[in-house]
Amino acid sequence: xxxxxxxxxxxxxxxxxxxxxxxxxxxxxxxxxxxxxxxxxxxxxxxxxxxxxxxxxxxxxxxxxxxxxxxxxxxxxxxxxxxxxxxxxxxxxxxxxxxxxxxxxxxxxxxxxxxxxxxxxxxxxxxxxxxxxxxxxxxxxxxxxxxxxxxxxxxxxxxxxxxxxxxxxxxxxxxxxxxxxxxxxxxxxxxxxxxxxxxxxxxxxxxxxxxxxxxxxxxxxxxxxxxxxxxxxxxxxxxxxxxxxxxxxxxxxxxxxxxxxxxxxxxxxxxxxxxxxxxxxxxxxxxxxxxxxxxxxxxxxxxxxxxxxxxxxxxxxxxxxxxxxxxxxxxxxxxxxxxxxxxxxxxxxxxxxxxxxxxxxxxxxxxxxxxxxxxxxxxxxxxxxxxxxxxxx
Length: 393
Prior knowledge:
Elements: E1 3-4, E2 32-39, E3 48-55, E4 61-68, E5 76-78, E6 84-89, E7 101-107, E8 114-121, E9 127-132, E10 138-143, E11 148-153, E12 165-168, E13 184-189, E14 195-200, E15 205-211, E16 218-227, E17 234-239, E18 245-250, E19 255-262, E20 267-275, E21 287-293, E22 299-305, E23 309-315, E24 322-329, E25 335-340, E26 346-351, E27 356-362, E28 369-377, E29 381-390
Antiparallel strand pairs: 1-4, 2-3, 2-29, 3-4, 5-6, 6-7, 7-8, 9-10, 10-11, 11-12, 13-14, 14-15, 15-16, 17-18, 18-19, 19-20, 21-22, 22-23, 23-24, 25-26, 26-27, 27-28
């Protein structure tokens, strides 16, 4: 069912998660990075999951190969042990059911080649986001079309077992085109690996669940969620490296909401909501997509589709509050996803509609982005993941 071209070597660099003060950006632990790119294959020229190499000093990208015949592997996740990669199959017709799937692959330690292991149903249509828990025992998935989430156990060889926990969302909100039903758009785990945070675009909520890493269960938190303004459309979420703050990017009203996070209760308290576009920008035809915090904890970035820019912010080290520092064009159209490399030196912007990935150097003092001139063509890029290849002396 799956085939692949030769790849390079692989290990995964894990980022610092918890701390009481700001985390300094780590020095690059690799002379070169492998870059896996999830794509949309339906209705496009994409062949599957692409592998690139990136020079950690210059940011130059080169095509290495592609794992073929993988259906709509839009979003990717890498196991903490660095041996396995998981991809959602963003479809709603898996094996005759109104469901998508997750596919598991091994990463060859010498060549980096992806070898297909197995595939399991997510019991919901259009799975669009997934994460591997810190223990490496479970994959958690958000199904956009189904408006539900699930967890799947992992065997020691990396293979997926059938779903062990499943939660269906209910409700709707004010946007008749996008919010007639729940749409779970992302799922993240907190630094303690105890709470799952689900951004549901359809009901304007962050739904919060208690996650049990022993049995993979997802139970409603005593405080079950955090409500966003009607019509906000929360899409993706990220934690600050200290674990003190969370940030959600709202797709429909073009904002980012900053929140205090209580790790004991799994609850959020709003700090501020700030626009991702210049004042006066028309909402029609525009939306946001990805949000990420720089490894140093000093800066936050969010992508705007339509304006085709990256919104850039400085993070106050005492309060977590955001201050806009400008907007950087992404060098293409529909920047669905972007990723900061583990050293915090570069940001790669994936422009879905122009089939290109642009490389920007990050100014470590100001957080501003500078085009490097490096670019590569990849059909319908959706998700970017880094793995270091060669350790420096």
